[in-house]
Amino acid sequence: MVSEHRTADVSFDSLLRIFTVPEGPNSTLTQIEEKLSRNLNQFLREHIVAEEKPLIEIEKDFSNASIPEQPEFVSDHTQHLLDTLVSHSVHTSAPSFIGHMTSALPYFLMPLSKIMIALNQNLVKIETSKAFTPLERQVLGMLHRLIYSQDDAFYSKWMHSANHSLGAFCSGGTIANITALWVARNNALKADGNFKGVEKEGLFKAMKHYGYEGLAVLVSERGHYSLKKAADVLGIGQEGLVAIKTDSNNRICPDALKVRIAELKAQNIKPFAVIGVAGTTETGSIDPLESIAAICQQEDCHFHVDAAWGGATLMSNNYRHLLSGTELADSVTIDAHKQLYIPMGAGMVLFKDPEAMKSIEHHAQYILRKGSKDLGSHTLEGSRSGMAMLVYAAMHIISRPGYELLIDKSIEKAKYFANLIKEQPDFELVSEPELCLLTYRYLPPHIKGALASANIEQKAELNELLNELTKFIQKTQRETGKSFVSRTRLNPSQWDRLNTIVFRVVLANPLTGCDILNTVLEEQRQIAQQAPNLMAKIEALVEKVNAA
Amino acid sequence: MVSEHRTADVSFDSLLRIFTVPEGPNSTLTQIEEKLSRNLNQFLREHIVAEEKPLIEIEKDFSNASIPEQPEFVSDHTQHLLDTLVSHSVHTSAPSFIGHMTSALPYFLMPLSKIMIALNQNLVKIETSKAFTPLERQVLGMLHRLIYSQDDAFYSKWMHSANHSLGAFCSGGTIANITALWVARNNALKADGNFKGVEKEGLFKAMKHYGYEGLAVLVSERGHYSLKKAADVLGIGQEGLVAIKTDSNNRICPDALKVRIAELKAQNIKPFAVIGVAGTTETGSIDPLESIAAICQQEDCHFHVDAAWGGATLMSNNYRHLLSGTELADSVTIDAHKQLYIPMGAGMVLFKDPEAMKSIEHHAQYILRKGSKDLGSHTLEGSRSGMAMLVYAAMHIISRPGYELLIDKSIEKAKYFANLIKEQPDFELVSEPELCLLTYRYLPPHIKGALASANIEQKAELNELLNELTKFIQKTQRETGKSFVSRTRLNPSQWDRLNTIVFRVVLANPLTGCDILNTVLEEQRQIAQQAPNLMAKIEALVEKVNAA
């Protein structure tokens, strides 16, 4: 409880005090907030990825499953949080934390997010959100326009229409993708004659009515894992998520897609949706969206673009051509908490056709009544926060040209890093950056030579040892705490599609300077020398290959 | 951009500035934050529900679908937000805003939420959350223990186990309910012989393998609308969500449940889950959970308890007996953003059996690798914020006895209000409060008398007029802006289950005093007199009934 005297009694009066807005700038809570801000600012300013403490040690601080019987003072608990939580958090906004899709955030979002927390609106219905509802509808309209470029008349007709929704704001890309496929599934299995639609009668009856043996969603083998979840949840089954092979640039092969669709149809399996990826999570590659759109039109498939990460590129007039064809999609996923630099929990799905979401519309007696403008009638989630206001604010304060500059600089930085890697004799760029994401590995020239000339068996063996090395370097670098790159497994065509572990780097943080990139490589090179046993094994195998 | 000089250029240097932590307490941003805090505190202190402005007028401020080409200064935009957004928001924390499940929040959550926003952790994986992952696991453990009361050994074995999860933290009760039914569906249609399980092969093949004609989830007719969404999404179909009739206290009739299960089985429809509601959204009623549990055990059904709203009652040793039987459930939904007083966006689902979530487990190459402690392998959502830390903090600062006091006071306040309504000759209590939620309507004694003695036709007609009156009072009161109650439609047994519109009140805000409750009734009484035409119609019909 907030109190100058350390009485830790539970009384209703002390409880009432904690629910009451503190008076004046000298309240205890204001002082706590100031201390907290100073501490957080210091944390954010220190460019260290994480103070290293083994997870098992950290878990000891979070091991008690009993809800405390004794209240703590706010000041004491704040200190406890700073000691046990903040100091052992990941500095996701550090300029050298380049392994995931996190970044530094525009600092003005910290004070502005107070509006969201303090007003605690619930966007499921107008009655608990009022102006936040039109605001969210405008944000959806802005993103819709960014993708589909409809005219003013379109938006003044649909944006605030009670019975329509241009999309859904949601907690993230996974829910956005599920929503898109939910809409696509329900439209593919809609009411027809005596059949009342899959939403009413369920998937089993729908399949029998339409006479299908199965359903399929097609996506490149680089599609996001959330699509497997979506296929599972929606009753399609993970096997119904059909992976199409990619070319050497990790882009879906349209011909292979066509062939697969024909095969599925021959088996009486309905391919009801194709997903184009605009920025794969692992390599940042963009599928040939126009070709996919043409195939979808021919085959009467829902065309969804998963642009959760890459969608923000549309903000740049210099690079939006990379996403050509997105405007042909029936639906598009964009995460604002990725390259729109909004805090975690801001995803969106947009639909080209304002009528598309009818197939998932729902109502209730006490809210979401027909004709209301309640956003909840078209969302998978129910109660939701006013997160859209942070997107709204960032759009206004940064503006489109500001976002353009951020996107452009990120792409240029990735090109710089790709060139830097290529200049190093002992590193191999595994995937070229299309946007600001690339992959590479440590591969000294003599090992590379051996890998190229080895026979199939030796090649696999050597590659496995290299995988171990890459893993070792990545883990050690993370644990050292100065910088962080992530790792994933690819099947590069230049290495006969062997299972290859690579470093993965995302360069979205505007504070990441070129000097950091140099340092990251130098550190990796040094760490490689800290695994003498592994290096000895590799060298022995290289010798064997060379002797053959 | 933050700047003393009003240059509104877009330059990379000015962009870098907005991503950089401001130095010192006199920065522009610190001043903006102080102004904002003052303004928000003032908003929160004024006990007015909402400044009234027609929605159509508000929409004009949010009508431009173009992303701005010109950046705004943070200070200008903050003022813009205060004018157009904050001033037309709903004061959900006002003591007289008693229509929905919102409340004032403990004020210490405002500064503490800074930690969440500033650190911007992503809970999908350890690599972007570190200490936040064990913290969230502890919060899930605490809620699990609150429900299931397992011993220390249980929690030290399972709480931090890499391959297990005691539940899932999610954005809200809807996702929690969907997750529970997803798990239940997948366990009911699990791998068996050559069949690889519904998650792999999909619902159609699963049904054929198991030889079912349909699937069913049973819940009382008062179940939350999110369950319809869940049935739709999961491919069961809304018709597979079977509504069971309730008794005069809005509780499911166990005998009717048994009969319906038998009927479904006779039709070869598999009832794979039954949902008990612990606090219905419309009436706050609690189903007889122990009876449902016994039926579920007999019928081998998954037993889910939707305690999204009522679950917090378990915190009170004085009232937790009301939820007896919750501990027998296979899964339980609890929303922390309802009666645990956490900001919007904090739902949870807990599973009795630590192995239960295996049926929805998923992995990917770059994260959620097998054996990692990444929370993302057991959640429907992907990227998620560190919201669990606010639950953790509130548990420690308020403590269980503090929550107990809050819960007890809310229930007692509802009893007080119920008695107050009963004492008024011109109001009718429609549903008694079991927790802190009740429904009632304005019904002067002579109209009540006529309604009781009218013939079927007249009764329906009079009731419809009363519905119009209730609706008019509720809307006018909301628009007047001093207080807010919501409305819903019930079928009270005392009125032959006629479709009856009622006022709905939730008394969870500790700042709501008894004086406010008196005022709400007085205001409603006065508003009733502002509808002379409607009142005249009612009086004419009453006269007709009395003359007959």
Describe this structure in words.
The structure is a homodimer of 548-residue chains. Chain A has helices spanning 12-19, 28-45, 55-60, 74-84, 109-119, 132-148, 152-158, 173-188, 198-210, 226-233, 254-266, 289-299, 388-423, 445-453, 456-480, 514-528, 532-547, and strands at residues 167-170, 214-220, 241-244, 269-277, 302-306, 331-335, 347-351, 427-431, 437-442, 486-490, 500-506. Chain A has 548 residues and is of the alpha/beta class. Chain A folds into three domains: 12-91; 167-363, Type I PLP-dependent aspartate aminotransferase-like (Major domain) (Aspartate Aminotransferase, domain 2, 3-Layer(aba) Sandwich); 401-547, Aspartate Aminotransferase, domain 1 (Alpha-Beta Complex), CATH 3.90.1150. In chain A, the strands form two sheets. A seven-stranded mixed sheet of chain A has the order 1-7-6-5-4-2-3, sandwiched between helices. In chain A, helix 10 links the parallel strand 2 (214-220) and strand 3 (241-244). In chain A, helix 6 runs parallel beside helix 13. The longest helix of chain A is centred in the last third of the chain and has 36 residues, at 388-423. The first copy, chain A, is globular, with a radius of gyration of 26 Å. Residues 1-5 of chain A have low confidence and may be disordered. Chains A and B meet through helix 1, helix 2, helix 3, helix 4 and helix 5 of A and helix 1, helix 2, helix 3, helix 4 and helix 5 of B.
Low-confidence stretches of chain A: 1-5
Strand order of the largest sheet of chain A: 1-7-6-5-4-2-3
Per the CATH scheme, the topology name of the largest domain in chain A is Aspartate Aminotransferase, domain 2
* Beta content of chain A: 5-15%
